[in-house]
């Protein structure tokens, strides 16, 4: 997950920017969207694989931010005046909500809960948190899609009600909801900043790498160096190449070819695909409560994207 989600803005009752005319032959857009969806789902699978291998989240973060930080460093150097003009609180919200702090929170959550729960709670509750944050500054108009938001809340309540006695899961859920809140704050900060997808990716990647390197100098990534080649290929292709470099560009391309509405709707299928990937890889089969909660949250997200009359 590395780009602003149009569904988050719609659910908060916020207007989306005008969408370019859709292509008459949208197959390339669908291909880009399918590729983006696979990356987003694989992001949660990679976090879970790192947790099961007892890999510290900070070590996995090195795989995520080192390639992207080096690739995007020239963008930061060339456009440093643009970044310097941003209010400090704004760029801090962008980096914290989609950069290293968010990554560490999500990675810690995956140490306590399965892929299906994390892939559902983090992206699924973003519209809710976006609406709540926006309500503080814009008033109740930001809650205009309250029936859809209540559906999301009911899904979260279902997960919590049936799993509240399981300490590990409860801790994971708390971290997932915190990560979702951070991403929601990033969503609004990025919208108000006016940064392009490339500029946002550069700021997030380079600053996150700068924050990560001092810690790793004091704590060598021994677990990362001990990983087998297969695990390196998994994390490197997903985190370093996919999430760090390609998903932002492929999602922006999909929006250009298909429109924001279609792209956001298909993006809501991330938890389903992530669960399908986790089943053969980790043997994680969602129970009835998880499926019910996932269904309610997905229904709320899709409902929130319906055009208002």
From TrEMBL:
InterPro entries: Diverse_Substrate_Transporter, EamA_dom, EmrE-like. Residues 172-303 form the EamA domain. It comes from the Bacteria. It is found in: Cell membrane. Its main location: membrane. The chain crosses the membrane at residues 27-49, 61-80, 86-105, 146-164, 170-188, 200-218, 238-256, 263-282, 288-304. Keywords: Cell membrane, Membrane, Transmembrane, Transmembrane helix. It is a multi-pass membrane protein. PANTHER family: EAMA DOMAIN-CONTAINING PROTEIN (PTHR42920:SF5), OS03G0707200 PROTEIN-RELATED (PTHR42920). This is DMT family transporter. It comes from Roseateles flavus.
């Amino acid at each position: 997950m590395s780009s602003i989600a149009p569904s988050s803005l719609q659910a908060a009752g916020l207007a989306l920017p005008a969408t370019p005319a859709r292509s008459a032959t949208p197959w390339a857009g669908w291909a880009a969207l399918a590729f983006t969806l696979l990356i987003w789902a694989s992001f949660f699978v990679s976090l879970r694989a790192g947790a099961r291998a007892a890999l510290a989240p900070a070590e996995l973060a090195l795989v995520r931010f080192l390639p992207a930080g080096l690739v995007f460093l020239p963008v930061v150097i060339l456009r440093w005046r643009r970044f310097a003009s941003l209010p400090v609180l704004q760029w801090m919200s962008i980096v914290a909500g989609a950069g290293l702090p968010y990554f560490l929170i999500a990675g810690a959550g995956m140490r306590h809960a399965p892929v299906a729960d994390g892939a559902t709670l983090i992206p699924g509750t973003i519209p809710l948190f976006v609406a709540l944050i926006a309500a503080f500054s814009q008033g109740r108009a930001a809650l205009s899609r309250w029936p859809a938001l209540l559906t999301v809340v009911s899904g979260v309540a279902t997960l919590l009600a049936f799993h509240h006695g399981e300490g590990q899961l409860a801790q994971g859920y708390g971290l997932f909801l915190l990560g979702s809140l951070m991403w929601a704050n990033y969503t609004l900060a990025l919208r108000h900043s006016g940064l392009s997808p490339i500029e946002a990716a550069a700021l997030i990647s380079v600053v996150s790498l700068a924050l990560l390197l001092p810690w790793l100098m004091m704590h060598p990534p021994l677990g990362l160096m001990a990983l087998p080649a297969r695990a390196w290929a998994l994390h490197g292709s997903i985190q370093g190449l996919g999430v760090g470099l390609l998903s932002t560009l492929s999602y922006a391309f999909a929006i250009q070819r298909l429109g924001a509405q279609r792209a956001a709707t298909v993006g809501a299928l991330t938890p389903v695909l992530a669960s399908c990937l986790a089943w053969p890889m980790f043997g994680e089969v969602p129970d009835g409560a998880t499926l019910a909660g996932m269904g309610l949250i997905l229904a709320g997200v899709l409902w929130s994207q319906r055009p208002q009359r």
